[in-house]
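Working notes for the structural subgroup meeting. M.R. asked for a predicted model of this chain before we commit to crystallization trials. I am recording the input and output together here so anyone reviewing the notebook later can reproduce the run.

Input as submitted:
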Amino acid sequence: MLSGTDALAIRASKKLRNDELLLTAFGGSRLRMELDRIPLWRGDSVAVKQLAEDFARYLYLPRLADPSVLVSAIRDGVALLTWPQDSFAYAESYDESAGRYRGLCSGRNLNLADHTAAGLLVKPEVALKQIDAEAPAPGGNGGATKPEGERPKGGAGGVWFWGREHQDGVHSQAAALSRHREFRPYACWS
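Returned structure, recorded in token form:
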């Protein structure tokens, strides 16, 4: 029943929000649940544009107040430190010839402008396989060298630090550390 003194559109909007039929906020883990429940994945990934169209088109999906709700959910999901269990990774594109995702990001803040971005959400198990395959060999420095003529700022005698942590099958995205700003093997890379 939509009784009250407000305009009909306002009363209907309130009822939809209260019944969770119109979402003004959407979390990354809830987005992952919807991706898996339907499923909305197109193979190992789904384009952000396609996902925005799906939420606007299909009645069995929650109604989002506007596309920015989806963009916020994507940002939230990618930033989760527990992304392998609870959300997804983000990639700028997929390189067919190399068979890999370019600009793969997970476990950190993402700068995603809007729902028309050309990016992809990537299944966590697929993203982890690529991250493992491209990770530096244990005990090595992954080919990283000190740039010519540059000295690391601070630190113990100019020592560079990087490492990897493995806990219960989950790789810590914050495990790679470096005093040099451009060496970030476990953040976003192309």
